[in-house]
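Worked Example 4.2. Read the sequence first, then its structure tokens.
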Amino acid sequence: MPSNLPSEWKAKAIGETMSVEIQKTQSLLLGRIELAALLGLSAASLDRAVQAGRVPPPIRISARRVHWRRSEIAAWLSALPAEAPSPGRSGPL
């Protein structure tokens, strides 16, 4: 970044760059509600599936936030069997 730019412009450019990087990172991650919706589950059902080991474990972002890598979820979904669910169950979860 040129050093002759006013400091407000530099701060704005740095802020915009950080914003773009945050957006890129967020597009790589799925939140709890997003993943539940993708799987057709309620958030509580997703939590139970994670605890039972039927869904890949999340990444803890903070004490109260977890996310999943989109790439891991895509690979996991691709690896699921394409067979019909057993009676009384609506799917592999």
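Now turn to a second chain, presented in exactly the same format:
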Amino acid sequence: MKTQAKRKENVAYIYTNSKGTKYYLHSKEAKLADGKSENIYYFRRNMGDNSIEQYPEGYKVKELKGYFVSQKQGVLAEIGLPILVKSN
């Protein structure tokens, strides 16, 4: 009998914004214009392969407040996107 190996589930840092929407923290290496590589951090509404458990030391999560107009509904909707900022 063949057994299937269980895939390790990703664990991610989760931020719930003021509207109750959950965002998962991700990181990936990006090549910059000068050829150097740098880790970038971003939040997504769903967890992916690049999810990470904790944000880097010296940073904190901040919620960006903003609004957008929905073309389908024709209304002004509030958004609260999380970003990482240096915690000085």
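Notes for the reader: The mean pLDDT is 83. The first strand starts at residue 14 and ends at 16.
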